[in-house]
Structure prediction request, 813 residues.
Amino acid sequence: MEIFPMLFVISAFLFSILSTSTTGIQDITTISLRVSIKDGGSTLVSAGGSFELGFFSPGSSKSRYVGIWYKDISPQKLVWVCNKETPLTDHSGALNLTSQGVLVLFTGKHSIVWSSSNKTSSTSNPVAQLLDSGNFVVKDGSNEDSKILWQSFDYPSDTLLPGMKIGWDLKSGLNRFLSSWKGAEDPAPGQFSFSIDRSGYPQLVLMNGSIPHFRLGSWNGLGFTGSPQLRSQNQFFKLDFVSNENEVYYKYELLSTSVESRLVLNRSGDLQRFMWSGTTNINRVIYSAPVDHCDAYNFCGAFALCSIDSPHLCACLQGFAPNSLQKSCHRKTPLSCNEYKDGFKKFTRVKLPDTTLSWFDLTMTLGECEQTCLKNCSCTAYANSDAREGGTGCLLWFGELNDIHEFDTGGQDLFVKLGDIKTNKRSSMKKQVAIIVSFGLFVMGVLILGLVFYIRKKKSRVNKKYIHGNIEGGNDDMELLKFDLCTISRATDDFSDNYKLGEGGFGPVYKGTLKEGEDMAVKRLSKCSGQGIKEFMNEVMLIAKLQHRNLVKLLGCCVEGDEKMLIYEYMPNRSLDYFIFEDTRKKVLGWAQRSNIIGGIARGLLYLHQDSRLRIIHRDLKTGNVLLDKDMNPKISDFGTARAFGGDQTEENTKTVVGTYGYMSPEYMVDGLFSIKSDVYSFGVMVLEIVSGKKNRGYIHPDHQLNLLGHAWTLWTEGRPLEVIDKQLGQSCALSEVSRCIHIALLCMQQQPEDRPHMATVVLMLGGEGSLPVPKQPGFFTERNPFEAENSSSSKLESHSINDMSITELEAR
Prediction:
């Protein structure tokens, strides 16, 4: 039950008659507010609960908005913006309520910049209230149970609060949806939106403009088929989905009064659910989507299944084959359109396909659903609309089946129609008889081939020892798909120098092109390399388990005789250091691209540290190990020196330090102690290099001998941090965003590991606008490092870098 909300309308007085505005409101009589909401004042309207309403400016912007935020949370967390597309330009604004029950936002000259809608009849006693739920409402003040005339919950910004609906009011035509901010300091609707698609069976879809970005899927009574981890009810909140003739909506309610929660659509197109305790106010991300490649809309194309556990991610559904010219699949056997011949193949634990081209009947049984699909030649699949025990309801698909994702747990059963499957079952009985008759002859053949089989098996064991094994630091066994040497040789023109991309300590890297036209990068272990076998094994076993849009995808490997190769997706724009440190090429990277690269690296690193099946420490993060795809999106590469932690392990000590000077953290270089905070340090160095366009190690300044880190720290302590910005950026960058990135970089590079933030916090800081903690002194901010001595034989540094693959090793003697 809500605490009595604060009323902030009391008595009416005649205001000057305003000219007709774009809202169509004329001869407005305003009602003054008990608590004045005039910009420039110090008083805010506050509900008895957790929220406040007032004027604000995001970040360093001078634009003024009316919004709602959490009262007791710092930094400020905005949940609703009133005039998000029409900001005030000064502090002269005022928010008032008309006698017709319309909220009006005025400038100092009494011009209307925003007004609420009120399609109902006017009321004699309108009041405005900020409820404990964070809902700003206008209603008839004659009695407590009066009808709401207007509410902010009907016009969401980027945040969904408990009790707020996403979806349609079918009577009024109102569509409630989330939209991302346009910029860090601009709350106008951005490129991403989150809404309910009613084209077929209702489903939740995250859109990038007019293109689907991620599909949470349809509701099956237990949750959404695209996110099985979001169950309808847990100990903290309950999900609710309603679809009837009056409305279609999704909302959630908190079950515990000890926690707060909100769902946010950020500027990167990610949905994040935050939860925190009212006593600690520590924000924690408990849900984030999309997470990996399989979450990307229709990543594998039509009639294909995406599975994170599959080395190639994508595979055609049984009964379908790959198309040669595009990423999708086609039927091996056409449908006969005969209910006595066609049948169904059952697929379990899947995200149901896109329901845009679907039909549904919520009263049918599953058996009736099957028969309906069999009798319709255009029907391609069916499923239960209600997956609860004893649930009914029928979902039919027509045309292509798109965006199917296989899960380890959860998901739903999908029945896909195949041609002549019943005829094939009958013919299989005849085949079994023929097999029995032929068995005697086959035994003779087996005896003859026995010796050949034995030899091949022995050889296979020798080869497979390089592709079977355990992840270093973990214990998950797996086998990776192999390419044959002939295919790789043909794709690289017999490893021609014209196809060579570069060479490092591991060996050369070539560009290859398969017959289907797919480009790839072939990382070939040098036959004379004495230190590559272990790294090869580690990289094969490790990266095959990792699937994320900001990690380079491993396509497979080749192990034949002395040849050992890794096959990666090809990155046409090479590595980040190829651009960022060269004066001509760095012009390609404006601030928007650099900001996107920083965010992508952070999300990829967060996946390694927190969201992957094992906790992964990369140990050699640097700009040379960040590759760029055709759209300049970053992908972390080179996992030859990575380590995987299992269980509750957080750190480890090593006698062999691997990495690259300038990026290694102090505790790792000096003591061999590495943890996820070692990677955080390396990330901070990269952010500083991306912002400045300069290398940390080898940085030259006419006034001192400090490295780039030391230079940035000196400028920070002197209050001049922006002087480190790359001059090539010119006026194209938002100084507040760049300054925030420098601040975050210094936090990541602090001397003590416990002072550095986790990557989950870094991602939030990059996407937020609130205040940041003051950084402490960084580690290694001088040019000299503890391993450099007068006697050069005391240490050995081997550093090998090529355009898109690298391995570096430091061995202390």
Observations:
- The radius of gyration is 31 Å.
- The chain has four domains: 1-155, 295-419, 477-569, 576-812.
